[in-house]
Amino acid sequence: MGAGYVGLTTAACLAHLGHDVTCGDVDEQRVAALADGVIPIHEEGLQELVRAGLDAGRLRFVVGAGPAADGAAFAFLCVPTPQGQDGSADMRIVQEVAAEIGPRLGQDAIVVNKSTVPVGSTRVVERSLGRRLAVVSNPEFLREGSAVHDFLHPSRIVIGADDQAAAIRVVDLFDGVGAPVVVTDPPTAETIKYASNAFLATKVSFVNAIANVCEAVGANVREVTLGMGYDRRINSEFLRPGPGWGGSCLPKDSAALVRIAEDAGYDFRLLKGVIEVNAQQQERVVAKVIRAAGGSVRKKRVAAWGLTFKAGTDDLRESPALVVIDRLVDAGATVTAYDPTRKEPLPGMAVAADPYDACEDAAVLVVLTEWDEFRWLDLAIVRNRMATPHIVDTRGLIEPAAARRAGFALSGVGLP
């Protein structure tokens, strides 16, 4: 449904994969041109795919969403969601198309939402269909200029569905496309799309700000970005939520760069925001622990797993774990910590010889460093040692189902 940039690429590529595809659009002139193999956009490889699909009889174009939906096993919504005056996505076209195709789809048809839509839009589509059909989110990650390549050689395929069987059927459509498949719920799939684009926007804004700093101090931004790009951490790593970043470099260098920019006459507000968010994250963890303790940690024992700023090191410098613990001590808590690299006491806290001892009579256990050994500890023993069954896991190490079986109330970072 829709022969625009996303819809046309999706239709042509699905036909290339061997499926029988009918693409519907309201623009009669566009449909007529496409039926003759003439595409309205310049996109490498797309013209050839459209013509190959037409010649093989696997691709056709019709006017209207309803005729395209007749007899379809899958209905891909690839229609515009223009930005409203308040910045939100306008869902009216999606709703109109869903209402049009709802009565014409078969009983087992699956509606696939490929348009960029607000989180929760699968529910909107379900209501608009006017009948009970599976609605699956399958966000697109196509770059203009390489859309065909991105569809056929994607970095990942994201499927969001409440119905596992429907999710598997949609995954099967991409058979032969070698890529990781992320199967999740619809809100998460929709959020992945927005989060991915927001992150890319952040990277662009960051490098633009760095370019401004380079201009002020006389550096070469091309060589700066070349040097940055070889750092694998700037690629896929460092996307794990936690209690904040620390260590010997990031806090110091970030603060220094802000000052360097200021001295050169540039207000590096983006980086100031990054630093502020980091401090806020640490305070949020403190608040989570206090909330888990019933609203106050005064005269209560708190167990802390992890002291170093990250696993695999004994470095305590600027460790977010220590910041969180210090705040809890300031709030009246008695903290006993465990870290594989530390045995001697530290100011303001006791250090236990093993993780179970740290939990003795604790009202809350907070996991602060991502040491792998914390994944495999016996939660039943932990529960027997603690005064009350509350865990705040800032690193995502504790398996929620295992925590529930052991009788724990578990809270994390970025989790329901």
- Characterize the overall form: globular
Helix content: 40-55%
CATH topology of the largest domain: Rossmann fold
Provide the CATH architecture of the largest domain: 3-Layer(aba) Sandwich
Fraction of residues in β-strands:
5-15%
Strand order of the largest sheet: 10-9-8-11-12-13
Q: SSE string, helix = H, strand = E?
A: HEHHEHEHEHEHEHEHHHHEHEEHEHEHE
Low-confidence blocks of residues: none
Query: Helix tally?
Result: 16
Report the sheet with the most strands, covering strand number, pairing sense and barrel closure: 6 strands, parallel
Distance between the termini: 34 Å
Tell me the radius of gyration.
Answer: 27 Å
What structural category do the secondary elements indicate? alpha/beta
Q: Assign the CATH superfamily of the largest domain.
A: NAD(P)-binding Rossmann-like Domain
Summarize model confidence as the mean pLDDT.
Answer: 89
CATH class of the largest domain: Alpha Beta
Provide the number of structural domains.
Answer: 2
Count of distinct strands: 13
Keywords: NAD, Oxidoreductase
Domain UDP-glucose/GDP-mannose dehydrogenase C-terminal: 303-400
Protein name: UDP-glucose 6-dehydrogenase
Pathway: Nucleotide-sugar biosynthesis; UDP-alpha-D-glucuronate biosynthesis; UDP-alpha-D-glucuronate from UDP-alpha-D-glucose: step 1/1
Description of the structure:
This protein is α/β, with parallel strands linked by helices. The protein has two domains: about 5-195, NAD(P)-binding Rossmann-like Domain (Rossmann fold, 3-Layer(aba) Sandwich); about 280-410, NAD(P)-binding Rossmann-like Domain (Rossmann fold). It is about 45% helix and about 15% strand. It is built from 16 helices and 13 strands. The chain has helices at about 5-15, 30-35, 45-55, 65-70, 90-100, 120-130, 145-150, 165-175, 185-215, 220-230, 250-265, 270-290, 320-330, 355-360, 380-385, 400-405; strands spanning about 20-25, 60-65, 75, 110-115, 135, 155-160, 180-185, 300-305, 335-340, 350, 365, 390-395, 410. The longest helix is centred in the middle third of the chain and has 32 residues, at about 185-215. The model has no long low-confidence stretch (mean pLDDT about 90). Keywords: NAD, Oxidoreductase. It catalyses: UDP-alpha-D-glucose + 2 NAD(+) + H2O = UDP-alpha-D-glucuronate + 2 NADH + 3 H(+). It is an enzyme of class 1 (oxidoreductase). Pfam families: UDPG_MGDP_dh, UDPG_MGDP_dh_C, UDPG_MGDP_dh_N.
